[in-house]
Write a structure and sequence with these properties.
Elements lengths: L12 H16 L10 E2 L4 H16 L27 H12 L4 H28 L2 H12 L11 H4 L3 H15 L2 H15 L3 H17 L1 H4 L3 H32 L6 H5 L14 H8 L14 H12 L6 H18 L5 H9 L13 H21 L3 H19 L7 E2 L6 H7 L6 E4 L11 H6 L17 H10 L5 H9 L4 E4 L8 H10 L3 E6 L5 E5 L2 H5 L1
Parallel strand pairs: 3-4
Antiparallel strand pairs: 1-2, 4-6, 5-6
Helix pairs in contact: 1-4, 1-5, 2-3, 2-4, 3-4, 4-5, 4-7, 4-17, 5-17, 5-18, 7-8, 7-9, 8-9, 8-11, 9-15, 14-17, 15-17, 17-18
Amino acid sequence: MTGGAIPGWTRSHWTRAVAVSAFLTVLHTWPMATAPGTHSRHDNADTMLNEWIVSWVQHQLPRSPFDLFQGNMFYPARDTLAFSEPLIVPALLGAPVRLAGGSPVLVHNVLLLLGMTLSMLAMYALVREWTGDDAAALVAGAAFAFNAHTLMRLAHLQAMHAYGLPLALLAADRVITRGRVRDALWLAAWMTVTAYTSGYLVVFAFFMIAVALLVRAVEWMGRARRVLPQFAIASVVAGLAIAPLYLPYRRVALEQHMVRTLENVTDYSGALRGYLASGSRLHEWLWAGPMFAEPIEPFFPGVTVLGLTIFALASTRRETRSRVTMFVAIAVLGIVMSLGTRTPIYGWIYGIFPPLSGIRVAARFGNLFLFGMAALAGFGVWQVRARLPPRAAAALSGVALALVTIESVDAPMAYRRFDGIPGMYALLAQEPGDVVLVEQPFYPPQAVFENAEYVLNATAHWRPLVNGYSGYTPATYRTFTETFWFFPRPHSIDAMLRAGVTHVMVHPNRFGELAADVIRISDEDGRLEKLAVGRNGLTLYRLRPSSSAQQ
């Protein structure tokens, strides 16, 4: 047990850290752990999109890895997986659950819980290595993994899997202080992990490490001949590893014009008032509730974290000054970049750093602020405990962790019940020959999020689906909307036939008062052969040309 461990705790510090991290994960997401196969966040379309992404990677990677990005939605568009985050690392972590027969919802929820736990453990590892204090590392881990921003983004699985950030910085620190090839390779590995999880995360990691190098230049300049080659090795290895991932995103940018312009970023730039906003129950009750009358990205770190950060800054030791300064710089950069086009700085960097063209929500750079603040809070706990007798230090540890948790908790969470994908979708997997499916109603681009359930249901058959939902809507879909929206009128069916559609799944309950007419007209059209009717009137048709219908 290290000198910074809590008296009376005799088990391995990792055993303790895992137990605390898992407990806090269950607490913050309660009651998800009681029924992970049925509790869902399907109130948000992004949840269903991420469930599809993870399932698609798990399905396609072992079968046809070179076609991984040719997702089965938005037919006939290409590289549709590249319309959103890749989530390849989480998909691999969740593969055993899927292979054991777990539904996409169960896999997603297990990965959500696992991602939060691993993110806390990663920050724990970072702060513990630099302080030797288990309690300080636990507080930092909790502040990082369960903050106001993350807990309002449960629909975004990538946000839960942020463990690559602290581990990449830990590897970069070791390169700065030791200059070993092994550390450079670990840095490349963690940068690769972040890239294969999220484009946002790898951009954040790049900026974080750039800040670390600049702020700590005095520390490594005297050994530049040893340190810089190691960073070069890390860059080359990571670049080669990430290239297969980069290429489809580059193709989409060039061929389908999926580029986030500065005008796009303006709509998703953060605001300074977001740094006072929090969705936790305590903060909403005290002051933050009215702040959500308008859309806002919350980044308030908590009063406890702020207090511990102030103490860390006021009592910085010479041996920790460079790291404390580094975290301050990371936090400040996070604020500035999160403001997006509200300052000229984002535009300047956008012009010289091409990966920024893939970032739409500039406000999420605020994650770097929360990252820096969490680490500084850990340093604050360490400094306070060092000035107290053992019993008082142990008591402080528990109080600090409890306060950080109480301030951030938003549980119990509201979930929707998931009763499984309708069995009719399995019929499509059994249909002979080529199948191209359209689900009706076919929503216009401004309501494309309504397709999210269709995308999730596609995991039951993996046949090409003309509908789709993602962070980008291709031109082909926009064109189809002009006619497909008018189903079951004859010209809509004609357009579907020309597009190569072979099957139509009709959701009568989505047509409202027109449901009965839609089914009646569909049944009367000779080109629509009814195959099955399921729950809530869900109806599957086989589409065939007029000549076939007349024979």
